[in-house]
Amino acid sequence: MTLVIVFFLATVAMIGFNVVYRHATYKYNKQGGGQQKPKILQVPSMIVNAVLALIAILSLVFTSVVTPSGGQIALMDRVYACSPIEDGRNVALEGECGRQAEIIMPGFHFSPFIRVVNHISFEDMVEIEDGTYATLTARDGIKLEEGQVAARPWLIGGQTFKNENGEEVTGDMLDASFFLTKGMGRKGPQTTVLTPGRYPVNTYLWEVDYSNSSNHRTSVPPGFVGVVKSAIDDAVVPAFMQNAGKKITCGEDVAIEKDLGQLRAVIVPVGCRGVWNKPLGAGEYFLNTKVYTVTQVDTRVQNWTYKGGYTRKTIDLKAEEDGSIKQEASQEVVDMDKDSAGDAIIVKVEGWTVYQELRIQARVQPTDAPLMVAAVGNLHEVEDRIITPQVRSVLRNVGGSRISVKNRAAYDEAESVVNALKARLELLKDPDTDVGQTDEQRANEVASLEKNISSYVMPDPNKEVTRPTQVLDFQNEREAIETLVAKNVGIIGQEAGIDIVSVTLGNTDLPPELLVARKVEQLSGQLRNAYVQKRTAQAQRQATEAAKARADQQGELVKAQIGVETSKLGIQQRENEGSAERRYMEEQAKGQEAQANVLGKDRVAMLRGLEMVISHPEFLTGLKLPNTMVFGSDGLEGPAAILGGTKLFGSSDIK
Hints:
By secondary structure, the protein is α+β, with helices and mostly antiparallel strands. Strand 15 and strand 16 form a beta hairpin.
């Protein structure tokens, strides 16, 4: 204001000086110039005018120039030469008194007497740090629509769009003048946020909040989706979604009612008030959390375990030295793991209590995430309120219903009976075991057992049967139990928008009393096998010792063996010679018999005698033979008579 006064005083002084100077000059010239010049005429007028002009110019410059620095803007509050604000607004437009919508950007700006008619103030631009955002609240504008908690979003920067009157306009909504006129901006909280950067914000219109600790970007990590719940009805798809800027229509008629069985809820198209039917993918988003609530849903495979929370009881068996079996009972507390979905599931089967541990692997399909959030809130709620109660119910129903399995249990039971019979038979056949029976009784029982074993018909273990669930099925038919539970839990998962990947039975805690009989049978079998192995080892040891003794007497054994072999060879030789002689005699007898049949037995005998004499002439030595021999008609009677006297033939040989 001081500069304005100086400017006016300098201007008035310059004008007054020139008027007085001209009047003095005129008067002096009229008098003929002979008199002494007035003092005012003695001062050079150009110098005075120059000084006064400089003062006026400087005063004008300082009242008409505004130069905000690079990081500042100038705000104007008009005081003079203006009209009152219309329509009850808080921010003045051009020509109106009050806080102006117009701002002065950094740089040199000249406007005559701008500083005279306005109060000028400088403010730093709004700077948003990386990873954060600032919310905006408009102090002026059109009243918010009924039911809206914030104004519909708009894009920052110069944009061309249709305003609420359907007029196509171009401008920047951060520009207060455009916001209050053609932009038809709404008063109150804005959905649009300022993302990281520097902005020239007219704080007469905008209240900027970037100090809130929650004003951080929304991160949706890989393996997750973000389900958005909006508090407003928008006119277009928001900038952070696909098809941004696309015009949409909201209302009750566009709501989508979905019912999967376990889940039932209403979802809406993107941009409308409610839970949007399409989630955000993995990424970073700057969105107003006062308007949009984002629930992250894990779409990776989840492991839900039901484990612990019971006391495990056991009965151990111990074999004593006398062969008896002793039972020892013990118990152990199994605590529930802190990461488990729940404790082990209690199942009642045939009046027995079974603690069954279980693990479920499941995942949420991204397309089903909005319905899950709208119906129950989040994945943890689905687990607690739907999956866990239903899984417990399914497993209990399996324990109290019928099950289709291979006929393995009947086969195992029959096999156990047959093994018991075989064990008894083996005991009876062992001559060293005293069973307290006579030999006849023992033989009768052996025969009876052999008959029973051979005629026992074993069930077909591969035949499928449907029967009531048995308590030992949780140990012996785990695969069938898992399949049945997985089928039923899978149906429940589909009704809850969850894919059940697998169901696996964990540890099964059966009543120890049920397992004693089997343990006794197993231990007895092991003792029996140990006895058999002991006897086998003893026999092997005896055989080894005998082999060692034979090795020590190897020389004598070889000699004896050779003698045995020699004896066997001699016997074989004699047998062969006797056989040959027998065949020779038989053939000779056959020849003699043939000769006798032709010549007669007497003549054959004579021929044999002659052959003997011829082959043994020494028989004739010393014999007195007649000088003259007379032969009969037969020709051989004479020689026969001579030979008969030699006693070479018996009386029976020659007739």
